[in-house]
Design goal:
The protein is mainly beta. The chain folds into two domains: 83 residues, RimM (Elongation Factor Tu (Ef-tu), domain 3, Beta Barrel); 72 residues, SH3 type barrels (Roll), CATH 2.30.30.240. The protein is 9% helix and 39% strand. The protein contains three helices and 13 strands. The protein starts with a strand and ends with a helix.
Length: 172
């Protein structure tokens, strides 16, 4: 399991006083404000959220020490992490931190290796799981739900994937 979890990404500057668009990856977007200082991937920079309010599809946040548009723009696309121990424990067996899924082996229902989970994406219509094929080549994107990914076994280090063509053949 990952010891640090990505919880947000800084987007574009918002206005001229140093506010930023903040893309929260937490179930409740405002929960990102409850985890204390957020850090960059390398842990060299820390950011405290002084204030946050909902925007259209993001939060508008004021970060400590960021006082103008230029400083805000310089932070664009910065991913923010928090140590796992600051996050609430997961109680639901069908809920996962994305960081725990990346790197798992992806196999089909017969156990044949498809590849490795490379990322989880959400473009607004639900989660997609990206699988990097074992032999290289183009990544496979699969809707991440119980039909196409019926088994997630973090302890065994694998997920079971039912390919869409197989799902359609069974009439699902």
């Amino acid at each position: 399991m990952a010891d640090r979890i990505r919880v947000a990404r800084i987007g574009a500057a918002h206005g001229i006083r140093g506010e930023v668009k903040l893309w929260s990856f937490t179930e409740d977007p405002l929960a990102v404000t409850n985890y204390g200082p957020l850090e960059t991937a390398d842990g060299k920079r820390r950011f405290e959220i002084e204030a946050a309010r909902p925007g259209k599809d993001f939060l508008v946040a004021r970060l400590a020490g960021v006082t103008d548009r230029n400083a805000a723009e310089a932070l664009r696309n910065t991913d923010l992490y928090v140590p796992r121990e600051r996050l609430p424990p997961i109680k639901d067996t069908d809920t996962f931190y994305h960081a725990d899924l990346v790197g798992l082996a992806a196999v089909d229902e017969d156990g044949a290796t498809l590849g490795t989970v490379a990322a989880i994406h959400n473009f607004g219509a639900g989660d997609l799981i990206e699988i990097a094929p074992a032999g290289g080549g183009e990544a496979l994107l699969i809707v991440f739900n119980e039909t196409t990914v019926p088994t997630v076994d973090i302890d065994a280090g694998r997920i079971v994937v039912v390919r869409p063509a197989e799902t359609e053949a069974r009439g699902e």
